[in-house]
Design a protein that fits this description.
alpha+beta, 22 helices, elongated, five-stranded mixed beta sheet, 15% strand, six-stranded antiparallel beta sheet
Length: 642
């Protein structure tokens, strides 16, 4: 409305609604409160009548009342809209942090404060901590914790009632602390309003609105913040219920998975039980058990006679499979004897039922090993009894001897060699010596079984009757047997062999003579210091007879030609070789020089030196025989094992 029009309307007489017109226009365009004074001021400036001015004053008051009512309704509408939007947020599947952030944002906006924030109760520590802030600028304030009764928030949490202050630091109702005061000071807060978050009778937190200047919060604002606090509490309760529900569902899903998994494991256990039972019934072996368990456990299972000692010992002591690095180990034992272990490769996270399956397989393995051992021991006894009968010539019936041998897959009509074997290391006591002999007998029996021969424990050692393969010699068989048995028992084993013999079923006395020959050869090897070696009677010739028994071979050699050997060693000469060539050449210097490829004068000089060392009678028949024997024995003593 123009100024002239307003002046005419106030001056002209007429109905009172003319005084309301300017205020209606102000209401229509939402003018500020101070704009409502202008029509009254203008009428006074124009000299309007008192009646007109009074009418305008009255219309102004009515317009301001209408304006206040409209503003209140708009504010309540905005508040209700905010509350509705917040409630709508709660109904959706939003994250609780996002909902709480929206609550403090809307509270700050509707109350027109500088900052809004929310703290939650910590049951474990008995205080409250900052959860969400909006408008905060101080890091220390955002990390505050308020104990019960400390500060305004602590008092709200303790009493479950709203508290408000227009000047926090001058308000003596609160217990001020250095930590809280420093955080509030950093944030610059002055006026603070706090309302409790309630779940039933319990305070779970506090919702705040605050300004950095003095301010009086109206009752409606306190009520509005309380409404937001109720929504925040509902959001937290809903989130907790959802969390519990999800946890319960996850637990049910896990339980269902476990049930399904248990069912599968039980089926696998039943499967392995059936397979192991079938293996035992059809006479399967240890490796068949390992293969069956490998399929059931979906891994690689091996039977090992030697596995990590600490893990095997722990498994045997506890009676369960144990984890070793990335593997599982189950001891295979019978009574106090350890037979080996089943090893499951590359399964660090073994299921308990699968662990039990591995343990059951180890038990079945031990039973199979014991059964196999019993059968092997029975066969070993039968083989030993037959060889004992042959050595002692108890059974003279060739047909019966052949039948007994055939049942053991041996052929007494083939060419055989009798071997005498003995351990060389002395045991500390009788028990250990007996155990060592049992190991030697067991290894010899196993070798005899694999070679279709016989073996028996006899005379403190072991005797074997082994067929001679085509192209082999008795010496080669003796050496290979010494190596095989020594490796099996982890000790040096010396083996003496007889010459090859045939037709043992028809002439069992041959076994007796061959055994005596093999023992003489064994004695010769031991006297010559060739422990752990193998040799046959043919390697010694007539010296085998001389070496039989307990004779000091090394002493004889040293007494006879020791001075010559010592001279060669000191001077680097070749007198012993010259002596050997001299006797081999029929004591002819001319033939000796051809044998050695030297001048005859060199031979003469060397023989002269030998005479000075051994004495003038060294070429007499008796001395010459002793020297030749000593040279031959020295070659045998120094012969290296093959």
């Amino acid at each position: 409305m123009s100024r002239d029009h307003l002046k005419g309307a106030m001056a002209a007489p007429g109905p009172t609604y003319d005084a309301d017109a300017p205020f209606l226009e102000l209401l229509a365009r939402g003018a500020a409160a101070e704009a409502y004074d202008r029509p009254v001021l203008l009428a006074r400036a124009e000299g309007g009548s008192g009646e007109r001015i009074a009418a305008l004053e009255h219309a102004k008051l009515l317009a301001l009342r209408v304006r206040s009512e409209l503003e209140g309704r708009r504010r309540r509408e905005a508040e209700l809209s905010a509350l509705f939007e917040t409630a709508h947020d709660l109904a959706g599947p939003r994250d609780v942090d996002a909902v709480l952030q929206a609550i403090v944002q809307r509270a700050r906006s509707l109350l027109g404060t500088d900052i809004a924030y929310l703290s939650l109760h910590d049951p474990a520590r008995g205080d409250t901590y900052m959860r969400v802030t909006e408008g905060s600028v101080a890091a220390r304030f955002q990390q505050l914790r308020l104990g019960m009764g400390e500060g305004l928030g602590g008092l709200v949490a303790q009493t479950a009632r709203p508290y408000v202050t227009d000047d926090y630091f001058r308000d003596d109702r609160f217990r001020h602390t250095t930590t809280i005061g420093a955080g509030v000071h950093d944030e610059g807060l002055v006026a603070i309003l706090g309302v409790p978050l309630m779940l039933g009778p319990h305070v779970i937190g506090v919702l705040f609105a605050a300004d950095r200047r003095a301010r009086v919060f109206e009752r409606e604002q306190i009520a509005l913040l309380g409404s937001f606090a109720a929504l925040a509490a509902a959001a937290i309760d809903t989130a907790n219920l959802l969390t519990e529900t999800r946890s319960a569902l996850a637990g049910l899903e896990r339980a269902n998975e476990i049930i399904q998994d248990r069912s599968a494991v039980i089926e696998r256990a039943s499967d392995v039980h059936d397979r192991l039972a079938e293996l035992v019934l059809r006479g399967g072996g240890v490796h068949d058990v390992a293969a069956a368990v490998s399929q059931v456990l979906d891994g690689t299972v091996e039977f090992l006679e030697s596995a990590p000692a600490a893990a095997v010992e722990t498994s045997r002591a506890e009676g369960h499979a144990v984890r070793h690095q990335q593997d599982w180990i189950a001891a295979v034992a019978a009574g106090g004897e350890l037979l080996g272990a089943l090893v499951l490769r590359g399964h660090p996270g073994l299921d308990p039922v699968d662990q039990r399956t591995l343990e059951r397989a180890a038990m079945v393995t031990s039973l199979l090993l014991l059964a196999r051992r019993s059968a092997a021991e029975a066969e070993q006894r039968v083989r030993g009894e037959l060889l004992d009968d042959l050595i002692e010539a108890r059974d003279r019936d060739p047909r019966l001897l052949r039948e007994r041998a055939a049942r053991l897959h041996a052929d007494l009509d083939a060419t055989h060699v009798v071997l005498a074997a003995r351990l060389d290391a002395a045991a500390p006591d009788a028990d250990q010596e007996a155990a060592a002999r049992r190991r030697l007998w067991s290894a010899a029996s196993h070798l005899a079984a694999t070679r279709h021969g016989l073996a028996a424990a006899r005379d403190g050692g072991t005797v074997l009757l082994l067929p001679l393969q085509h192209g082999d010699t008795a010496t080669e068989l003796a050496r290979s047997t010494a190596l095989h048995l020594g490796t099996a028992v982890h000790e040096a084993v010396t083996v003496g062999a007889s010459a090859p013999v045939r037709g043992l079923a028809a002439e069992p006395d041959k076994v007796v003579a061959a055994y005596a020959e093999g023992r003489r050869c064994l004695d010769a090897l031991r006297l010559l210091g060739r422990s752990g070696d193998g040799a046959a009677a043919e390697d010694f010739g007539f010296l085998g007879l001389l070496l039989a028994g307990d004779r000091d071979v090394s002493g004889f050699v040293d007494r006879t030609i020791g001075r010559v050997a010592a001279y060669d060693e000191r001077r680097g000469t070749d007198l012993l070789r010259t002596l050997d060539a001299y006797f081999t050449s029929g004591m002819s210097p001319a033939r000796t020089k051809d044998e050695l490829h030297v001048h005859v004068n060199t031979v003469a000089q060397r023989l002269e030196r030998v005479g000075r060392l051994l004495g003038d009678d060294w070429q007499s028949p008796a001395r010459a025989l002793e020297i030749q024997l000593a040279l031959r024995l020295r070659r045998l003593v120094t012969a290296a094992p093959h």
